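Lecture 7 notes: from sequence to structure.
We start with the chain below.
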Amino acid sequence: MKNIYVTKPFLPPLNDFIKRLEEVWDSGILTNCGPQHQHLEAELKKYLGVHNMTLVNNGTMALLAALEILNVQGEVITTPYSFVATSHCLIWKKCKPVFVDINSEDCNIDPSKILEAINERTTAILAVHCYGFPCDVDELQNIANRNNLRLIYDAAHAFGVRYNNRSILDYGDASVVSFHATKIFNTVEGGALVFSQGENSAAAKKIRNFGFDNEISVSSVGLNFKMNEIQAIMGLAQLGCMSEIRKKRAAIAQKYDQELSVIKGLKFPRPRAGATSNYSYYPILVESCESRSRDGLYYFLKKSGIHSRRYFYPLISDFMAYKGADIAIHHDLPIARSVSERILCLPIYPDLLDSEQSFVIKKVKKFIEG
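Predicted structure tokens for the same chain:
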């Protein structure tokens, strides 16, 4: 059997992409917020149910822009359980990440630990909707309001997720989403910012193009992180497939649930009540004992050509770049460390064949049950 990877980029029908590519050729416009870019931005606002969206060239630049526009400084309370880009952006903005623990139910930042970390230098909370599972957005907003803090969400995993019948991107002062090739919706590379305030969205549109107001006026110091027309048509071609993409991912997740949930030795992070799922990942927690471990399962699967992922391992706070006290502040992280040492994400993507998934399940059962 061929190699089975944890994810695989979705490619829309080639004929549809070529037709849209011909439109780009006919227009002669390749970038600078052209018609395809504007079309995608409008369609995504409708699809996601948000108002103040700004498309950019990748999710990392979206987060950097959010921090800049909201004037985030000093100490920022965040999670060690994420992709490094979350904290890297804070470092680039000369902020100090303050790592606090997560909960084991959905792997998101623990609001009670945030309260313990707030001091006079704290200016913001940067939370992550891990695996697309919504954070405790109501409690985080209460904490932010009571302490006059900015609240920013790294929603890279959370495309299309809703919580209490509202887009998850609509919470906090800002949310950023990634359209990287590995995500449920992709533009090869790409991302977007969603602000609660329209004036911040207008500022984002300005600074993504060097800060230009018009041809002869620059009123802010911006950079170049516009989404180009080729990225935009990839997104437009994919958007029409999203219903089928979600349906296939849901079916794969359901089969995993049915086959694996009865196995002793496995636990499953789950989203909170009131949340929808986009099925962007399928994480499991392997309970270690003398005969098994997470790493044991990881390498056992790899020998069979199944490339799962220890996502997220190690913790950001354990990387060499974050070891120094002058770089970041580390609070006690027992749950994050325990989850990081037990987590494994199994293959899930629309093109995963039923026979391939059955093979994955068979191998997981063989390792866990012996």
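Points to note: The longest helix spans residues 242-260. The CA atoms of residues 124 and 149 lie 5 Å apart.
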